[in-house]
Amino acid sequence: MSSVGRRLRRAVWVGFVGAALTGLLAASAAAAPIGQGTDRAAAAARTDAYIKDVADDVGDQPHSFNPLWASPDIKVCPTAVECAVSQNPIVGATNYVFVKLRNPGPYGTGTSTGVLHLYRTTPGGGAVWPTHWTQIGAVSVVAAAGVTTVTIPWTGVPGPGHFCLLARWVSDSDPMTFEGPDISTNTRYNNNIAWRNVDSVQLTAGGGPVVRPFAIGNSLTVPSTNEVLFAAAEPLQEIGARVVVDLGPVLFERWRAGGGVGTGVRPIGRTQVEIVEPKWASLGNLRLNPGERLEFSLQFSAERASNRLWPFKVIQFGPDTSGTKVADLGGVQYQISSTLR
């Protein structure tokens, strides 16, 4: 593994994919050759509604906050009444996605009129825009000053019911600054775009494993080499938790061919590895073909119950189309709970 990769992983661990990663990714984003950005002098000629990427986001584009993929302004609820905390969608039922549009941002004034689009894809990183995204719905909106909460029905949710969600505000008076194949770059540079990959994992102490999908992808036109990081704020072993990664035959063979590079993991089967490091682990040197996106599975289980949530993040790092060699290409924050039978 390169020294850059080691430094990045260490920074992620120290800040739990937070403040310690901000400076590095901000510098990478600033160097991205994506045009001239937004001219504040032209603010009077346009409107500017935005969706928060993180709690402290005030609409600046680009910004340096991380992670980009846990927007607090996107929420999934089982009814048309907004719930307090976002939930996993119920398969086969009509769910409702609530998106908050905030007006104005720093680049315009006045009422903004447009269409809010909502998309889904398999949880994970490297989802190429627009190839890997499926539209859930779209709603025409007039966003006056303040916060406008937009409700988008989500009918016929397919199994297994775990998705990345992407909201895009499309308005003639509030244009995107840039859109390319990398969702991470698009999100950082456009306050019109927000991304949410948060999944609740409800375990039964002493029960069988709960499975979640995760995908990694390559938005480049050439092969790329990637790393998947597994990070816990606190050791999951405190609740007797076990995390097994089943790479499947294709990705497992790619990992073996790349030298079986990893930290804090051990092979336990023909295509599986177990996470054994209490706070962070990684699988490296994963080669992906141009435009390819491969799915694997995560198996969670726990021996003891707990009255709190245990955050666990899985993130793909690799090169993006801006030229950044070690970029956060997307991830998922799993909120793990464990209850008695």
From TrEMBL:
Keywords: Signal. Residues 1-31 form the signal peptide. This is CARDB domain-containing protein. It comes from Micromonospora zingiberis. The lineage of its organism: Bacteria, Bacillati, Actinomycetota, Actinomycetes, Micromonosporales.
